[in-house]
Every structure is written in C-alpha cells, then in structure tokens.
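Office hours follow-up: a student asked to see two folded examples consecutively, so here they are.
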Amino acid sequence: MMKKGLLMTMILTLVLAAVLGLGIVTSYADAVNPTLVLDGQVLETPDPPVIRSGRTLLPAKILFESMGGSVGWDGQLRQTTITLGDTTVQLTIDSTTALVNGEEKTLDVPATIINSRTYVPVNFAATQLGCQVLWDGVNHIVTVNSPKKAIAITNIQVMEARSTVRVELSSDGVVENYRVVAFENPDRIVIDVRGAKLQFNGGTAGGLGISNDIFSNVRFSQFDADTVRAVVDLSVQQAPQVSLSQDKMAIYIDFTTDEVNEAEEPAEDDPVNAVEPADDAELAALGLPRLDWRMQGKLIVIDPGHGGIDSGSLGYIDGELALMEKDINLQIGLRLNELLQMAGASTAMTRTEDVSVGLYDRPEIANGLSAALFVSCHNNSNDNASPNGTEVHYSVKASEADQGFTSKAIAESVMDELEISMGLLRRGAKNSPAYAVLRCTEMPAIIIEGAFLSNPSDLQYMLSDTYVEDYALGVARGIIKVLNAAVDSQQE
C-alpha cells in the first residue's frame, strides 16, 4: 500500500502541473484519437485525427482531396484554402476567424499545425463545404459524408392520355427532395426539386407554351443555386395527383379532364376515388368541413389494421367472442374513406376486405403511392380490463416539412375531435417512433387506437350502431382541419 504522504505529494504535483499548463494532465477524450470514416469507408491517414477542446481536428489535405476537392497552403499567410464544388473555405493557423466564399465566420477551435501538417476543425470545415458530419462519442468515430451530387432536370414535357393531362419532370438521378404546392391569386401549382440543376432548355428559364382546359402554360427556371422550379399556371382550380416513376427519376403531376378518348379501353373502377364529393348541405349535416381545393391532390392512405389470418385483439362478453378487432377496423376504414372523399380528399386503402396485409407492406404501399398522409385505424386491448379510452400515436420525421403539416399536428387534431365525437377517456397524442408503420412511412403518419376491446364499457360502445360513425367522423374532421389550416402557412 502506498504511503499517505507520498500519495499526497503525487496529487499535489499533478494539480500544480495542470495549473501551470505543463500538459501532464489531459482528459480521456483528448487522449483518444478518433477513427475517420468517409462515405462509409474508414479513411486511413498517416496522421490520425485528434480532439482538442472537445472538437475533432484532422489533416485537411487527405480528407478533402479524397472527396475530389483541392487543398492549398500559403506559408507566408499561414493559411490553408479548401475548395469543394462551389465553396471555398480559408482558415488561418491559430485564428478563430475563417472566410467562407469571402464571408467571415467564427470558429470554436482554430486550425493548427501538428507534426508539420495542417489540422482543421472537421465539423466547421466539412459542414461549410456541404458535407454531413456525425460523431459517435462512445466508439470515438467521426463520420463525414460527402455532399450529394446534384441531379439534373433533363426534360419537362406534357402528355395527354385518357381523361388525364400529365406534366412530367425527368432527371438523370433519383429524386429525393421535392415538394408540390398549390397557390391562389393567381392559381398555380409550384413544383420545387431540391438538389437539382436545370439542364433542359440549355439550362435557361422558359416556358413550354402549351395550353389546354386545365392550364395555360408550364414555366421553369433555376430558382436558386440548389432548386429547379416548375410552375403550372392554372385555368381552373384543380390540385393534381403527384407521384414518382418506379425508378424515382421522374415526377408525375397528373390532372384530370372530362374528355375521354373513345379509342381507348375503359379503365376499371378506381377504388381510390369511388365516392363523389358531397354538396354543402350534406357536409353541413355531418358537421364535416370541405377540404380546400389546394389540398385535394394530397393522397391520404387509410390502413385498417390487421385482417385475414391476423384477427387483432378480441372482445369477449360472458366468455363468448363478441368482436374481432380486424372487423371493426375495416368498417371504420371504409367509412373514413367515404367521408374523406365526400369532403373532396383523394384516398387509397391498404385493404378493402378481410385479407392479410404484411406489417411492412402497409408503409410500402403508401410510399409507393407517394402518399401525403398515412392513417392506420386500430382499437386497443390490455391484459387488465380496467384501461379504457382513446389515444393517437405519431412519429416526427425530418421530411414532413415539405407536406406543410406534421404527424404531431394531425395526431393532436384527431385526438381532439375523437374526444368530442366519442366522449371516451382522453389518453392523448403520443410520440411513438418504435411502431413500424410510423417509422417506415416516408410521409406524416398516425395510428389511432379508438377504444379497448378488453374494457367492458368500451366494448359495449364498440358494438353499438354509432361507434363506427363517431370514430370515422372524428378522424375525418381532425385531418381536414389540419390540412385546411396548412394551406395558408405554405410559402412560395
């Protein structure tokens, strides 16, 4: 055992060294050299990255030249210049001021020289150059993802088919970030494709000069350095159906017309739009708002939970089976589909009869249809008979901003309306990212748990003549209110 006097002497020595800045005491984080991963591959460097004052610094030359950039050095100014794409970052050794395309920026930690190599703060330099930087503090891994290459919009055309006029934007790559929004005064549809360059029409702004009963022209431009914009100037107020091609390299903006080409075979009945919009009197009788025309092109996918061999929860009365969840879910989904269509919405369903649909097939259906909203209708159960009431689940996604509304807003509005229409205990709107259909859908999505089959009082209500209508009406009202409120919040 070390003697007490000797131990105290060592402690005092270390403390004094730290105070005097002798460098004997360093944090564990500063002593560990992190691993550098570039675009999924470990990047071997002669001199490893280091951590200084909680920031990762790394050799500039090997990282940015590996991305196709250039790194220069001015010995007199003690300044390194990094260029990647259209961006140039200049960092001066030991200075907390940097220049990004000539504009001054402040750094937390300056560039420095270690073993005759220039080290730069990776988070600042990489993010300014358009890269994504991730830090795994547990495993000491810094991941840098190169900027995504801009796709090129190579063609914009108009095609007419049976009762449809299509505006198509084609690209040379996968379209990942786009939005389609309707505006009034004047009436128009705006299509923004982000991460894109205009190569159609020689890369210059213009118009197709094509007119019909739906629109008077289709205009296009390089709206900003990263966005191609197309504008459809409407002659009538109609929100189009929007989808991606199977390879996701083209955007389809489809308008419907009253004209039918007699030479073409009649199309099969379309279950997506089987119900005509109701008149004002019908909607007023239901207490259902009409969906604003600018939102009528947003496809809503309705998902009646369970089905086929998957019965879902079971409700019993006096030991006898009284209700299967899959059956009540389907009734609710079908009625919700009718109500939304009556209000003017475009809808599709994951099932319209008692069939099995895989858990991961449900979000895949919605993703494949380029849906704007996914609504899964369920009812609840518990091993204990006491729990009762209604709850709605959602999961926030980064991509939701392009829709103009969020999962959370839809969930809270639906919860409010269900509390009014059904009158059950309010269990609330809950953020539940673990649910597969919420996690795997690319659009805002909610799961509704209407009532408990395991609760005797809830079950009696579920078996009544009013439950399906109360449930479906509450959900429809909640959805339409949010969509209508979102119309004016979207900016061009």
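And the second, which I mentioned at the end of office hours:
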Amino acid sequence: MCGAPLAPGARFCVRCGALAFPAAANADEIALSGRQRVQISAGALSLRELLAVVESGVFYWRQRLERADGVAREQAVAAIKDLSQILDNLATQIAQGRETIRITGRLPPRRRAPRPCPLCGRGNRQAARYCMACGAPLHPGQRAEPSRLPARRLAIAARTDRGAVRPVNEDTVYAGEFTAGHSSIGTLLVVADGMGGHQAGDVASSLAVATLKQALTDALNASLPEDDQAWHALLRGAVQEANRQVYAQARADAARRGMGTTLTVAVVTETRAHLAHVGDSRAYLLNPAGVTGEGSIWTQLTIDHTLVARLVDIGQLTPEQARVHPQRHMLYRSLGTDPVTEVDVLSQALAAGDVLVLCSDGLVNHVDDGELARIVLETPGEDLACERLIALANERGGQDNISVVIARISRVEGLA
C-alpha cells in the first residue's frame, strides 16, 4: 500500500496500518479510517495491531511536525508525546508475552433504588413519593390502580447546526410521536452524525433516520412490545435495517463509497426510555435531584465506539486527554460500513424531573459533561437550552456539525 518494509510475520503495516495480506481479513477485524484495522473479538483487543495503529499515528504527526509552525507545531509535539507514552506501555506488555487486553466497557452507574413499589415491584430512591417506573404512590399501605397513575408530560426540542468550520451539515436529528389510533405509543428521539466523502455523510445520516422511522412504524403497527427485551429486539431490527440500506447505497454509488453514520435512538414511553446506539454520538440522563448513587446530576447512558474511548478504558489515556486526542474520531463501529453491525441496547426507568439529552460529538468536543448538564437543567425552556449549547460549542471553535435533542419529563399539574 505505502511501500514501507514489513517485519517478518507482520500482519499490518506500521506506517499506514494496511493489511499485509488482505485475504486474511475476517469478521473480527474492524476497519478504521486510513485503511487501518484493529481486531476486537470477544471483548479483547489485539495489542500488536493496536501498536501498529498507534505507530501510524506517530508517523502521521511526525510528518505534520516537519511542515508545521506555531500552534500547529505545538499540537503535533503534544500528540507525538502522548502517543509515544502509549507505545512504550504497549511495547512493554508485548515484551512480557501479553498478546491481547480485555476491554471493559464503562457501564453507566445505576440509580440506587432501595424502596420497592407496592404496585409493580420496581426499586426507587429512599425519599421518592412516586414510583419512577409506574408512577404509583409509595406511601405505606397505599396502592394505586394503573388507570389512576399520574400523567406525565414530555417537553422536547431538537436543533442541528453546521458549526463554524464545516461547509455542509452532515448531521440529522428527529423528534416525533408514534401513535396507534388515538393513543400515543411513545416519542422517538434520534441523532445521526454522517461521515463520508463527496458530501455523502448527509445522505447516510438522513437515509438511516428515514429507514429507522419506517421500520419502527411498521413494527409498532403490527404489535406493541410487551417488555424491555421485546423493545430491544425491535430496536435492533430497525437499526440493522438502517445499516443495510446505508451499506447498499454506499456499495451502489462509487461517489458514496465508504459513507456511514452514527445513530443514537431513544423511544420514550410513559414510564421508560428504550435506547439503541452505534458510534460516538451520545445519550445522557440528567436530573437535578441526582441520577446515580453518588448523587451526580448526570450520567452518560451510551458508550463511545471509538479507539480512543477504548484507550481510556484500558488506562492508556485520561478522559481529559481523550477529549483533545488527534485520533478521537476513529470509529470502530458505525452504520453503513459493514453488512451487519453490532447494536448496543438498554432500557432506563424515568422519573419526574429526568431529562434525556442526545447529541453528536460536535457538541461534546467543546462542552464537557458537567457544563452540558448545568446548562440544560438551569435554562428555562428546552429550545433555549439547545440554542445555548450550540452557541457555546461554536464560540469555542465549532469544528464539527453540532446536534442536540432534549426531552424533559414532568408530571401534569393537578394529576400527580
């Protein structure tokens, strides 16, 4: 591919990351940008292949260093320093005979829920007055009939912005209701961040969202899921159909070859949110009363499918370093780049005061998690909160398209 010499037995080029023997590719090897591949199988990461990718990053930044000056030169020096430390650590582990490293995904902390609901049995915070799952009152000896449960209101806003640098907005957002007859099934929230040359990213993200909506509509018109597992199967199927459509278009049109998109989805029902996720867009849960056992007002519900996120997981980078790392956009999982993709799914009980936030990485690259939570919770109105977040990201550089969807859950006054 690039002409660089290979060590005996090498499967990947240390300069460009290309496969030494393309025929050796298999389903466990995930393509990254720049023709690089990393093997992620059964939750384990190949240290030798990771070493090759990091070495290619050092080579890239050394080239930049030779041509750069001023701030760009300082950025290249910092990148080489960070990557060199990772190289030293990986090389030491390989020298000790270690070939793979286990990936432990960072699962979001769950609510502490010691108080059971007398109606549905779900756990709740000790001071809760109503069950976060079914809304039943938690007063001793009192039971509520399902027909008399407190009604909830969902206030929603969705915004997307081109940013300060990109010529085209390749993000797609959506927020809307699913209904069956005169009854509401739930509210669909989606953020998709497209990628690809020749402005194909916007095609990928819009096609993925349109396909997802149609697949969910068809499935929900046929039958309603009865439990979390049924919602998970429904969402997986819809996301896989979106993946097939994007992949087919990318293969059919040479100008769109390699296009893809992230996809983060939430279906909000009366008592729960059911989520599906691929890529590095994110979903957060916020509540001023706290959402974790430690009392934090925010938690990230999704896991970034990026190489840098995995380096944080195995202790090679801190979260602060990951935010500015030059390879932070290297996805190992996305929609449209492979015939089949793995989909993360989860369900989250909702309580009054909860806020769901879905966003693309164009926001979190410039606004940290604590800032995001404070702005959303302290700003009166979801539309204004979206505008403030986008304005802040643009003020700090706006290097990418910026998208955010906010859904705030509250009880209808007089019915709680």
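Two things to take away from it. The chain has three domains: 22-102, 111-149, 151-311+327-411. The chain has a mean pLDDT of 79.
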